[in-house]
Every structure is written in structure tokens, then in C-alpha cells.
Task: inverse folding
């Protein structure tokens, strides 16, 4: 019996396996295992050796000695130490179990030359994952594990020829010189063809940087890490790492400082994880710091991290970020700080293009490059986000820009918001007297329809208040541009019932123009009065006092300015607001004054809502005949002037009156037309309210199915635009059905 057969039998017995069990586990036949142990087959193929070694659980030196025992006489096998260059990795590897399983699973595929490319932002744990996977896979690669830091983002990355030279030497060969990169790469693949080696190639700059170092079609494989997605490596499986979920971030912190400290201060631990941006490198570094300071409460570190001025230093990620940003080309390096200027969580392409003062197509291409570099993420098509810690790093650089450059960038964004606001105004209320103030200054090339403009404002709505406040606090941003946003958004805020947003924007704008621009100030006080009243009608009673004060001051402003058109509009708003507050007599007084003034001035385009407001009030006094007459006049005037909202409101009132009088067929007809008109005008709150009235009209006709449909549609809209009280009323009617 030869040496290999003896060794195989000893290892099998040590593993407590029969020949048949070893054969089944390795995928060989029982006759083959017996022939090897008896020495009938003295020099098994490499694939057979690998199967047996895997089945016996051999790794490292044990696996190398096993392979050497099967070498033919004179073969160099076993004469050179097997290279095992993977470092020990990090002590606390946690939170990446799913990613690790995916990487390991890719190496289980029945194919040769597996390459896995792991990408992600600086500090996200690419190398840690690669090392952990490398150690788990080591026994599958008996000819060695090689680890190279390619330093792809360094100022002086190593020459690929030098890297190939080192790899060849580590594998026990002498590379002939001189060689071109192509021929050296080909020789390297030839050398690997008869071996099973795992390559860990860390910090690749791009696909071209790492491609010459990859194995060919043999049994060797590679794990590559990079800050950029190596999508142009066709043979590579792509694995993208994101920051950790909160639960995994807390597990990583607990692994560093001990689970008992996290359990003792769970709120502080969550704060630390959040302020570290759930970034593994930051969590590892702050955890190591806490571990060496056992008497520090976790809350103390949370307090230190809460100071934005020193968070980058406390988390220790500044160096990694500096390397990532420092590798950008000049265009991207100049742009990156500007992308951090706004206090918003994410940027759309149009907003980013204004920050950068560049065409949208060029801006999107740049944002995509920064996303490939993992300096941005893209939560949705056309939207981009900076990680919290990267935002702080970029803002440090933005703070070094000239004050005028920062103000100019924010001004361009404010002007974009103003342009979209005034486009909505022009499309919904083209005859508004506000356009006299705007004077065409805020025209913009953009979406053409009201639906498109409102959709744009809907997508950016969460950022409008923030942008206005930040602009007001930034020296050098023109106050009239900020005021233009508030003044232009009036119809949008009314259509979407975003009254709190309206108040926040208009209050900031009013502070800037009060005493400087009387027309803008009077208009903003009018708008604030309407918004406060709308909120008050939803249950905030103190809002009526504020509403009355704003509107009466606006009325006095217009009397002083001498603009009877605006005076009539404010009187109509006082009519509406006093009606909401149940002072019907005072409301009718304001309304009739407004109607007389509108008619004397020939302002037919503003007469419709005036008539509808009075119709509602006369109806509340029990005068149904006058209510119907005023509402019918409103529809007629609206048809002549093209006032869609006026027609919608008039038909809504006509439908309600007929429903209350038991004329359900007429009510359904009028209310259905009103719903269509509200939908055309984009006024979702009143669309919802009219749908609810339509549901009640269908109930009057004993059509419960149609009533249920209308109530369901109304409730869906009211949940977003109508407030809890209105939604609860419709929900109760649905429950009764």
C-alpha cells in the first residue's frame, strides 16, 4: 500500500466514515475509494482529490499535505508552501449574514472562474465581508488564498504589471521579464489553470484596473471589492452593500461593547447607531472607543455624536471619505459640496441642476457617476440622496465656498420653486390679480398641463417649506424670490388642502416683505387669513381669531393701496371665513359688499365664488330659493368666464340643495358633473367632499352599491386631503352601510 492510500485510510477512519460513506459524501464510487486505499490507483486527478478533501473536511496545511501525498515522483507539489495571505478580518463580524450567504452561494455554482464584485460606499464593510467569505471558502482552494490591496483610489496606485509579478511569485513561479500587461496577464491565467487559488482583490478603481488580475476558466476564483459598481466586468456577480438596518447595527455595536451595555441603555444605543448613519465602519470605531472606556455611559457618546461639528471625527470616518471624494475628477469634486447645501433628505434632477447651474441631462449623468462611486444613493428614478455622514463631510467643503456662490445656488433653487408655483397659478387661475404683481418674472419652461405641474409640486411638496426657510436664513437670497414661492403656491395649497404648509411658507415670506412690498404683504396676509380659517374649521378654534386679524389687516392694506379689485377679493374671503365661524349675518354683509364691488368693476371672473359663498350662507338661513338662484348664477357666470372651480362649486351647491329637498335624480346629475369639474381643477379636497355628497344622493335613491363606491372613493381622498373629522364622518356612513 503506497503513502497516499495509507493517508487516505487513516483520515477516513479518523472521520469515522466507512468507504461507502466517504464515497457517498464525496460523490465518488465505492470501488474508486477502495482502489485508492489499496494503491490500485496511485495518482488521482485534482478533481478527485478536491472531492475527497472536502468530504474529509481538510483545510490549510492538512489539505496541502494530502495533495502532496498524491503527487507523482518528481512533481513540485508540496515543495512550496501554500500561500495563505488572508488577514484575520475584524473581531465583530455581524449584520451581514444574508450578504455572506449570497456570496458563499455564488461559489457553489457549477462553473469555473467565479468572480464576485462587492461594491458600496466607503466604510460600508466591503473588505470585512470579503475576508469573512474568503476564510469560509479557504478549504475549497487548496493551492492558496492571495490578498492584494490594489489601492485603486490612491494618488499613486500600484502598476498592474507589478501586481501580476507579485501574484506569480507568491504562487512559486518566476515571471519572465520584460512582459507587456496583456502577455503577463495571459501567463498568470495559464499558471492558475492547473490550480485552485482564491484571489481577494481589494479596492479596485474600476473594471479596467482589476481585469488583468482575474483568473481564467480554471478552478481559481476571485472576490473583488470596489467603491464603484464594476458592471462592465461581464464575468462578475454583483453584490451591492447598503448601510445596516437598525437591528443589525445594534448587534454590531453590542458585539463591540458587550450586549449588557446596549441592553442597559437601549435608547442611547439606538441614537449612536442612527448618528453613525448605520455605517459599519463608524459603528466599529465608536464601539472600539466605548469598549476601551468601560465607565463611559453610552449616552455620553450619543451626546458627543449629536454635535455635527465633530461627528465625523468622533466616528472616525473622515479619512475614508477623504479618499473617496479625493478620487473624483475636477467636475465632480466641484459639484459634490453643492449637492449638500439644501437641508432636504434627497434631491431631484431638476433641483440638483439648479444647484450646479448645469443642464438637467449633464446633471443626471454626473449624479449617476456619483451613484456608481457610491457617494450618492438613488431611492427612486430621478432622485438622489447623500448618506448623513457624507452630507456632513460635503458640507464642510461647501462651507469653504464663497458666500455669494452658496447664496446663488440656493437662489436658483428658490427661483425654480417660484416658477413651478406660478405655472400652477397660471394654469388654474389665469385671471388672478396676483399676476399683476408677478409681472411674468417667474415664467418657466417645464410641464405644460395642470396635472403635470401639480404632480411636480406634489413630489417636491415636502421640501418647499424647508427650502423657503433656508433661503430666508441665507444672506444674499433675494426676498422677492422667496415671497414669490408663497404667493404663487396659493392655488396649489388650496387645491391640496395643505394649509399648514401654506402658513409656514407665507409667514416666512411676510416677514421678508412687510414694510418693503405693500402689495405682496397685503396678499400674504389675505392668504394667511384663509389658511388659518381652514384649519380652524377642522377643530383649531383659535385659528378664527388669527384669521380675522390677518384678513382685516389685509382689507385695510388694500384700502390704503387703493386697489378695489383686491379689496373685493378680501371682502369675499371675509365672507367665506366668517361663514366658517358661524357668524352668518356678518359673512353675508361682507359677501354682498364684495359682490357689489365686483359687479361695479366688471370683474365677472371673480364673481362666481362670491355668488357661491353667498348661496351657502342664504341656505344656512333657510332661504332655499335664494340659495338656488345664487348658485345657478354662479354656474352661468363660470361658463361665460371659463371658471372651472366656480362652476364646480356652483353645481355642488345646486346638487346639495336638490338632495336635501329629496330630488335625488337631479342631485346625482349635478353632483356628478361637479365631481368631474373639481377633478379637472385639481382641487382634491372638494372633489372628495362632493363624492361624499354624491354617495348620500345615491342613498336617497336606495342605490346602496353606488353609494358605497362613492363613499369609498371619498374616504381615500379625505385621508390625505380632508382631515380626520371629515374622514371620520364618511367612515361612519360606510360603517352604517
Result:
Amino acid at each position: 500500500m503506497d503513502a497516499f492510500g495509507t493517508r487516505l485510510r487513516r483520515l477516513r477512519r479518523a472521520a469515522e466514515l466507512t468507504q461507502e460513506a466517504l464515497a457517498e459524501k464525496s460523490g465518488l464510487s465505492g470501488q474508486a475509494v477502495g482502489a485508492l486505499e489499496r494503491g490500485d490507483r496511485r495518482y488521482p486527478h485534482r478533481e478527485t482529490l478536491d472531492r475527497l478533501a472536502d468530504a474529509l473536511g481538510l483545510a490549510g496545511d492538512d489539505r496541502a499535505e494530502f495533495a502532496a501525498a498524491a503527487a507523482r515522483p518528481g512533481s513540485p507539489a508540496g515543495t512550496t508552501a501554500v500561500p495563505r495571505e488572508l488577514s484575520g478580518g475584524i473581531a465583530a463580524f455581524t449584520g451581514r449574514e444574508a450578504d455572506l450567504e449570497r456570496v458563499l452561494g455564488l461559489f457553489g455554482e457549477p462553473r469555473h472562474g467565479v468572480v464576485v464584485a462587492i461594491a458600496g460606499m466607503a466604510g460600508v464593510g466591503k473588505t470585512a465581508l470579503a475576508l469573512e467569505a474568503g476564510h469560509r471558502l479557504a478549504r475549497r482552494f487548496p493551492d492558496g488564498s492571495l490578498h492584494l490591496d490594489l489601492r485603486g483610489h490612491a494618488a499613486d496606485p500600484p502598476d498592474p504589471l507589478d501586481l501580476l509579478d507579485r501574484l506569480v511569485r507568491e504562487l512559486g513561479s518566476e515571471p519572465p521579464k520584460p512582459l507587456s500587461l496583456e502577455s503577463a496577464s495571459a501567463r498568470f491565467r495559464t499558471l492558475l489553470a492547473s490550480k485552485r487559488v482564491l484571489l481577494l482583490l481589494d479596492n479596485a478603481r474600476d473594471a479596467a484596473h482589476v481585469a488583468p488580475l482575474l483568473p481564467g476558466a480554471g478552478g481559481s476564483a476571485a472576490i473583488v471589492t470596489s467603491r464603484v459598481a464594476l458592471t462592465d466586468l461581464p464575468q462578475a456577480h454583483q453584490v451591492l452593500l447598503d448601510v445596516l438596518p437598525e437591528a443589525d447595527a445594534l448587534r454590531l455595536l453590542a458585539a463591540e461593547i458587550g450586549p449588557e451595555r446596549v441592553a442597559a441603555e437601549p435608547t442611547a444605543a439606538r441614537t449612536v447607531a442612527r448618528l453613525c448613519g448605520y455605517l459599519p465602519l463608524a459603528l466599529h470605531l465608536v464601539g472600539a472607543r466605548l469598549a476601551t472606556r468601560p465607565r463611559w455611559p453610552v449616552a455620553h457618546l450619543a451626546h458627543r455624536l449629536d454635535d455635527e461639528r465633530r461627528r465625523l471625527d468622533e466616528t472616525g470616518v473622515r479619512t475614508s471619505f477623504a479618499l473617496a471624494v479625493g478620487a473624483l475628477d475636477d467636475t465632480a469634486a466641484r459639484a459634490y459640496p453643492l449637492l449638500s447645501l439644501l437641508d432636504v433628505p434627497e434631491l431631484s434632477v431638476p433641483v440638483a441642476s439648479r444647484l450646479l447651474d448645469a443642464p438637467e441631462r449633464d446633471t443626471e449623468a454626473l449624479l449617476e457617476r456619483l451613484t456608481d462611486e457610491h457617494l450618492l444613493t438613488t431611492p427612486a428614478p430621478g432622485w438622489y440622496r447623500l448618506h448623513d455622514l457624507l452630507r456632513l463631510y460635503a458640507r464642510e467643503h461647501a462651507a469653504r465656498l464663497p458666500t455669494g456662490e452658496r447664496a446663488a445656488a440656493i437662489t436658483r433653487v428658490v427661483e425654480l420653486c417660484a416658477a413651478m408655483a406660478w405655472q400652477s397659478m397660471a394654469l388654474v387661475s389665469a385671471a388672478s390679480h396676483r399676476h399683476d404683481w408677478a409681472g411674468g418674472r417667474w415664467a418657466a419652461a417645464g410641464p405644460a398641463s395642470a396635472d403635470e405641474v401639480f404632480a411636480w409640486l406634489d413630489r417636491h411638496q415636502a421640501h418647499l417649506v424647508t427650502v423657503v426657510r433656508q433661503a430666508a436664513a441665507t444672506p444674499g437670497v433675494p426676498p422677492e424670490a422667496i415671497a414669490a414661492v408663497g404667493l404663487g403656491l396659493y392655488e396649489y395649497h388650496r387645491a391640496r388642502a395643505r394649509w399648514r404648509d401654506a402658513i409656514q411658507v407665507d409667514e416666512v415670506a411676510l416677514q421678508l416683505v412687510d414694510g418693503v412690498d405693500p402689495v405682496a404683504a397685503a396678499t400674504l396676509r389675505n392668504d394667511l387669513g384663509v389658511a388659518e380659517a381652514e384649519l380652524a374649521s377642522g377643530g383649531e378654534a383659535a385659528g378664527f381669531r388669527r384669521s380675522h386679524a390677518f384678513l382685516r389687516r389685509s382689507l385695510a392694506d388694500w384700502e390704503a393701496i387703493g386697489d378695489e379689485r383686491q379689496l373685493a377679493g378680501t371682502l369675499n374671503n371675509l365672507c367665506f371665513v366668517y361663514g366658517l365661524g358661524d357668524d352668518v349675518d356678518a359673512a353675508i354683509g361682507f359677501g354682498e359688499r364684495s359682490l357689489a364691488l365686483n359687479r361695479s368693476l366688471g370683474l365677472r371672473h371673480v364673481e362666481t365664488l362670491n355668488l357661491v359663498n353667498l348661496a351657502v350662507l342664504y341656505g344656512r338661513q333657510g332661504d332655499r330659493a335664494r340659495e338656488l338662484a345664487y348658485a345657478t348664477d354662479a354656474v352661468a357666470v363660470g361658463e361665460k368666464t371659463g371658471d372651472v372651480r366656480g362652476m364646480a362649486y356652483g353645481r355642488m351647491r345646486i346638487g346639495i340643495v336638490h338632495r336635501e329637498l329629496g330630488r335625488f335624480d337631479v342631485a346625482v346629475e349635478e353632483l356628478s358633473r361637479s365631481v368631474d369639474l373639481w377633478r379637472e381643477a385639481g382641487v382634491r379636497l372638494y372633489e372628495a367632499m362632493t363624492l361624499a355628497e354624491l354617495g348620500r344622493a345615491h342613498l336617497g335613491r336606495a342605490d346602496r352599491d353606488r353609494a358605497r363606491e362613492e363613499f369609498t372613493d371619498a374616504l381615500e381622498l379625505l385621508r390625505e386631503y380632508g382631515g380626520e373629522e371629515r374622514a371620520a364622518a364618511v367612515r361612519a356612513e360606510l360603517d352604517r352601510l
Q: What stands out?
A: The radius of gyration is 37 Å. The longest strand covers residues 198-204.
